[in-house]
Protein: Trehalose 6-phosphate phosphatase
Amino acid sequence: MESRDVPLTEGGLPLPPSPAPDWALFLDVDGCLLDFAQHPSQVVVPVHLQRDIVRLSDLLGGALALVSGRSLESIDEMFGELRALPAAGMHGLERREPDGRRTFPPIAPQALDGVYAEARQLAMSHPGAIIERKGPNLALHWRAAPEARDALRAFAAAALRVLPDYRAQGGDMVLELRPGGSSPDKGTAVEGFMAQAPFRGRTPVFVGDDLTDEHAFSIVNACEGFSVLVGDRHPSAARWRLPNPAAVRDWLARATLGAHDGVHA
Ligand SMILES: O=P(O)(O)OC[C@H]1O[C@H](O[C@H]2O[C@H](CO)[C@@H](O)[C@H](O)[C@H]2O)[C@H](O)[C@@H](O)[C@@H]1O
Structure:
């Protein structure tokens, strides 16, 4: 579909068409399906969203996966009913395949324990700052303590000196220390799913808001799929846009109702 054929959002990108039966749909979680909360544990998962995702997965023949920076454990806690759906966690470091097989993240280096302890110490002097440990990843959050941003960034830069194979990955009010080099990202997660049934041969569609979603946008663009940015972050490789998580939820809900000329029950 050409941009000129559809209404443009305020951000200058077109709204995506309604999900079609031949899509392989990849959904980011925080800031995309869910509104941001001050603390990662405070997000609210609307009951109708769980129901809509399960229904949409059925309508797409199972070709729907959650692709998140969170751990699979955290995803499963939030989306209990979706436990059996394919998913990628920790930005692609861990995966649950369509047949249930699991890919586990690499073991954390011993040095990460010391970095974690120091980070928690630092967070104590910035009330509201949160240190989230996810296997080999360490997320330094400042949403509830914006003044801690520079201190956490400086800490991350210093920590990389004792974590030689690591890199710092930016997110929304968060900086994450994670294995670097050629380790998986959301783009390779999408490629991995697309290589197997029921995703193979379908049109890939990735919906996400964050910097880490750019890897997946590039892969989807290369396959002539739909890359859908949530929000107005700029620049982005995405070619379509939905304004916020409420609009994403509405878009999904309408698809399950067959409200547009897309996937029908
Ligand atoms: O890839 P995503 O599914 O978007 O996950 C990215 C990160 O999401 C979480 O942090 C973000 O959401 C929190 C809850 O709204 C918010 O408090 C925080 O400021 C955001 O950065 C999660 O905690 C991270 O582990 C994910 O990497």
